[in-house]
Amino acid sequence: MDTRFPSGQEIARKWFVVDGSGLTLGRLASRVASILAGKENPMYTPFIDTGDHVIIINAEKVKVTGMKADQKMYRHYTGFPGGLREEGFRKRFDRAPERVVQAAILGMLPKNKLGKAMGKKLKVYKGDHHEHQAQKPEVLAVAAR
Q: Which are the contacts of 130, defined by CB distance < 8 A and separation ≥ 6?
């Protein structure tokens, strides 16, 4: 008995569009990360990228619960001595809400080459317009709770 693995040509990738209006950031991120990883695909194989493309619109209307808006910090290191930079959630969300949503989703993907390939299939937009009408994306409903 042989184990059959899907090849690149057999994987039919779909395009989904998600409206972020009123959705909680963490719940949205976990559902989208699952789709990008291909875990909702019957052909799912852990070491092959079988995921679909996801477009998120209205990233500026995503909400967070609890004290995260006041307490969460984004940090990065510039590579120079004393180069640790910090930015609060509110400031980054006002400046670039699409980067906040993208960081939440990419943080739930594997930290290797496979995770990078999955992350490239994510597109996040601030408004309600996107550039992927030609792909005919399906509307994906995410529970708002």
A: 17, 55, 57, 123
